[in-house]
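User: Show me an example of a complex going from sequences to structure tokens.

Assistant: Sure. Here are the input components:
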Amino acid sequence: MKLAVVGKGGSGKTTTSSVIARTLARSGRAVVALDCDSNPNLGISLGVGDEETERLVSMRQALDEGEEEHANNWDTLISRYGSDGPDGVRLAVVSRIDNPEPG
Amino acid sequence: MRLAFVGKGGAGKSAISGTFARTLARQGDKVLAIDSDPLPGLAYSLGLAIDHTPPIPDDAVIERKEGEEGPRWRLNPDVDPFEAVDRWSVEAPDGVRFLQFGKIKGDPKDLWRSQMAFRFIINKLPAGRWNVVGDLPGGTRQAFTGWGTWANTILIVVEPTAKSLLSGRRLARMADLDPENPKRVMVVASKVREEGDVEMIAKGTGLEVIATVPWDEELAEAERRQLAPIDFAPDCPAVRAVESLVERMSEEKVA
Amino acid sequence: MSPEQLLGSVEFPEDDVVVADFEAGVGTLTRLGEEHVDTVVIVVEATPKSLEVGARAAALAAERTVARIVVVANRIRHDEDLQTVKAAFPGMEVVGVPHDPKIVEADRKGVAPIDLDPNAPAVLALIGLASTLIPTSN
């Protein structure tokens, strides 16, 4: 099941995503959380802590800057650029950090 | 003064920058408020009843002809930046002029030309006549590349939350991205409730906190009612705090 | 790879759940393909700006996908707020989440709301929402 959470910045998207992800994981599902925001914060709401969130962001930046190889498949992506969070939620930062588009 | 407000969505950027623009205009300064964020915001905080101002026309931007040198796109030479501001901006209360490119209702692809025209016009506007107060999108890089080159000073609006601090830190790190256009970067602490919030923000960003705007129910209520905070609650603590910020920025002549 | 490319191309195992926290605004939605997502959760507050973005998101989601759309009315302080949101999304599923000091506290501390207080009103409301999103096996 693929679920997208959208809304104006500051409305509570990330908090909503995090509780949904953690709840579904607790119910026994394998959950993958994708942070698609160019300003990634989902890790904090999921409970991985701000240091780990920052680490994932730097990894993503390294990928964008070509320092790291692109992962061609999902498992590689998650194992290399993702993180295991509480309740077994796996988190990956997906979006390009320096999005040249406005807004 | 050429000042850009940036920060993660929800921090109160629009309410603060709109109130700032109105206050500066009341001092007798000529103020141009600009909104380059495609998501709605600044117009309401300025006290404008409608948020859908017409987009800058497509032909304001022209393409390089075959064989010509130079950048692919540039401002139509017939477009004078001062005239453009007069023609395409909308008058807000206290004489503030408001300029924005087309809003979210349009197809983003159709709007990119007017977005480019917007950038060219603002970047070409000679310093001196207009004080420019702008709201920049919440994303991380825009303030320090392309979208914010017109600004001399960047104010990062930060709330006392871990997420807002993280965004603030990222923005702070980008301050040196464009050494040819050095900018002064400072922080406005927003929605402050507790002792220690300001210190947390200062420490977390590593920057000077130049103003503290307290958590204010009336500011939130103004937003719900689509009214400018300076009209709805002129004496509320948040508006007062922004007024102090205007005084501070004017005195320092930093912007 | 962009979010929409990822959602469109990667073969996620069928029983997996993918929760994608999109970029603020509707940019990614404008690029979404028909089967990229099964459900779109639109988070709004009872303020004009938030509702405007939400309405645009709902229109795009309905145009571009066959997903189920659920609106979360967030930071609800009184029934009027909830009614304001419901009026903005007539005929659609709207779930109210109350304004909650525990969420504010979790944000300040940088911890997961579900860890700070799993019984906080807003957390319970979101847990309730989550349970309607998939059939949970008992």
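The lines above are the inputs; the final block is the predicted structure for all three components together. Residues 48-64 of chain C form the longest helix (17 residues).
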